[in-house]
């Protein structure tokens, strides 16, 4: 999980999935271009998975 484009790029380089949070460093639109699965818009979104 990350909040920067480079987090998604690093995950892709090693072949693992990338989940993004929309409230961090990068704009959500930039993160969505990386096709994160999933994209979290709130902490509650994360809590629903646990």
Task: Describe this structure as you would to a colleague.
This protein is mainly alpha-helical. The chain has one domain (5-47). Helices cover 40% and strands 8% of the residues. It is built from three helices and two strands. Strands 1-2 form a two-stranded parallel sheet. It starts with a helix and ends with a helix.
Query: Over all CA atoms, what is the radius of gyration?
Result: 10 Å
Instruction: Choose one word for the global shape.
Output: globular
* Mean pLDDT metric: 95
- Note the beta-strand portion: 5-15%
Task: Note the main attributes of this structure.
globular, two-stranded parallel ribbon, mainly alpha, 3 helices, 50 residues, 40% helix
Which SSEs are present, and which pair or pack?
Layout: H1 5-14, E1 20-21, H2 28-32, E2 39-40, H3 43-47
Parallel strand pairs: 1-2
Summary, kept brief:
The chain has 50 residues and is mostly helical. Helix content is 40%, strand content 8%.
